[in-house]
Write a structure and sequence with these properties.
The protein is an alpha+beta fold. The chain has three helices and five strands.
Length: 113
């Protein structure tokens, strides 16, 4: 893949049949959501997913590694070209992923006069 934007578009297309997939840019990469739960992202030039029973089942050859210094290990995706298994893995991961944390309301900034 030429760059992260192209990789993001390719991953989105591979997962399109699942529906409710979205990504947002984050620190030079992208974070991926399925039904509003974070399941993975593009870090550097690698697509990585959270470690779950499903991700281990579909990618037994993938070795956990941190996506960046100080981060929890994730699994580099080794089945990116296998659309069917990639979709099955992400779908099965959903139940294993934590629920999204409720968003805190933003506080209005008050200016001093």
């Amino acid at each position: 893949m030429a760059d992260n934007k192209e990789l993001m578009a390719y991953i989105t297309e591979q997962l399109a049949q699942l529906g409710d997939i979205r990504s947002i840019p984050m620190m030079g990469g992208y974070i991926f959501y399925y039904r509003e739960k974070i399941f993975g992202g593009i870090y550097g030039s690698d697509f990585m997913v959270k470690i779950t029973e499903a991700s281990r089942k579909y990618m037994p050859d993938s070795e956990p590694e941190p996506p960046y210094e100080g981060a929890k290990p994730m699994l580099p995706v080794t089945i990116l070209e296998d659309r069917e298994n990639l979709q099955k893995m992400v779908h099965e991961m959903f139940e294993e992923l934590p629920k999204p944390k409720p968003k805190k309301p933003r506080q209005k900034k008050t200016g001093q006069q």
